[in-house]
Amino acid sequence: MERKPSAVLIVALILWTFGVAGTVILPLFDQEINSATASGELRNYAEDSAEARGREVYVQNGCQTCHTQFVRALPADTNQNLGPVSKGGDYKYDLPHLLGSNRTGPDLMWVGLKYNEDWQRQHLIDPQSTSPGTIMPSFDYLSNQELDDLVAYLMSLKPTQERLEEYKNEMNEAESMDHN
C-alpha cells in the first residue's frame, strides 16, 4: 500500500479541525458554562467596591500562586469538606480567572463560609497565630485599607444559601449511604 503525504496531511488537517471545534468552539454555545450561577452572580462585584479592590490586592500579591479557587468533584476535594463542587457559571465574572493550579495553601473557593472577618484579618497579619505551622507569609505590610478590602473579598467567596443547602443535603445522603 502506497501512502501519499498529501492524503495524510489532509486527514490530519480534518482531525485537527474537529479537535478545535470540539474543544474551543462548541463550548462557546454551552449555556451552562456561559451563564452565571446564582453563586457566580455574587461575584459580580460593583466597580470600586471593597470586594473588587480586595480582588485586586489578591491578584497583586500573587495569592493565586498558592491557593486555588476550584472545588473538584474528586474524593480529594469532597473528603475535605471544601463546599459545593465548582461549576462553570461560578466564574462568569471572574476575570482574570483565579482557578489556580497549585495548592500549597487551602482552596479558597468558599472560604467566606469558614471563618469570620476577624479571623481573616488576623490570619493575613500573623498566619502563625491562627494556623500554627503554616508556611503562609505574613501580609502585615498591607495598608489598613488593603487589608479591609482583601478581607471583604475573602468573605465574599461563598455560595448562595440555596446552593449550600443542596450541598449539605448531598453530603447527608452520601453519609447515610456509607452507613448502609
Fold and architecture overview:
This protein is mainly alpha-helical and 180 residues long. Helix content is 49%, strand content 0%. The chain is built from nine helices and no strands. Helix 4 (50-60) crosses helix 8 and helix 6 packs across helix 8 (144-156). The protein is globular, with a radius of gyration of 21 Å.
Number of helices, where a helix is a run of at least 4 consecutive DSSP H or I residues: 9
Estimated share of beta-strand residues:
under 5%
**N-to-C SSE string, H for helix and E for strand:** HHHHHHHHH
Unreliable runs = none
Summarize the structure.
This protein has 180 residues and is mostly helical. The chain is built from nine helices and no strands.
Could you list some keywords that capture this structure?
single chain; 180 residues; mainly alpha; 9 helices
List the helices and strands and how they pair.
Blueprint: H1 5-25, H2 31-34, H3 38-41, H4 50-60, H5 75-78, H6 117-125, H7 127-130, H8 144-156, H9 161-179
